[in-house]
Write a structure and sequence with these properties.
By secondary structure, the protein is mainly beta. Helix content is 9%, strand content 45%.
């Protein structure tokens, strides 16, 4: 009995010291834009509005981290440009955090959206944040609880009309932070 008690105590001590620290997993594919475009597609992402290969490119000239970043080249004030992450199954009532680093060299601002959709592929909840800094990297971050009827979650990197210039996006993330 004494050996069993000591063995249990040792196991508890070892587990408390050696237990791995839980780290949230980024739910986005190609969140750092290091995977090159394939046949004018950006792996892990779908066009929301605009043209991949024309308005949206993966370029190596400016990155927050790593070698490449997504860039929106905005040459027309009527142009809207947006890239959506591939949809991911949502956990209803789960708390999600989304973010991205943005280098905004445009005349106005660009946006990050956190979106939830229902089974009819309709947006049922969203939260957005816009850049405030110019010509420097800025972190955009939003948090939102998924509605009870949420089936999918995604983020959108977006430029609205009335804007000119370039915006770089890098190191995006989407985490389920609380179930």
């Amino acid at each position: 009995m004494r050996l069993t008690t000591k063995l249990i105590a040792l196991i508890i001590i070892l587990l408390s010291v050696a237990a791995p620290v839980f780290a949230a997993t980024n739910l986005l594919e190609n969140a750092d834009f290091e995977t090159s475009m394939i046949a004018n597609l950006i792996p892990g992402w779908v066009v929301f509005t605009g043209r991949i290969g024309v308005d949206m490119l993966i370029e190596p000239d400016k990155a927050y981290d790593g070698e490449s970043a997504l860039v929106f080249h905005i040459t027309d004030t009527e142009q809207r440009t947006g890239l959506r992450s591939s949809p991911i199954l949502a956990v209803p009532n789960g708390v999600y955090e989304a973010g991205v680093y943005v280098y905004d060299a445009t005349s106005t601002r660009v946006f990050l959206y956190l979106d939830f959709w229902n089974s009819n592929q309709q947006r049922i909840a969203h939260k957005t944040i816009a850049t405030t800094a110019k010509n420097q990297w800025e972190e955009l971050r939003v948090r939102l609880t998924a509605p009870e009827d949420a089936l999918f979650v995604s983020i959108i990197l977006y430029n609205t009309s009335g804007n000119l210039g370039s915006a770089y996006f890098d190191h995006a993330w989407l985490y389920l932070v609380d179930e």
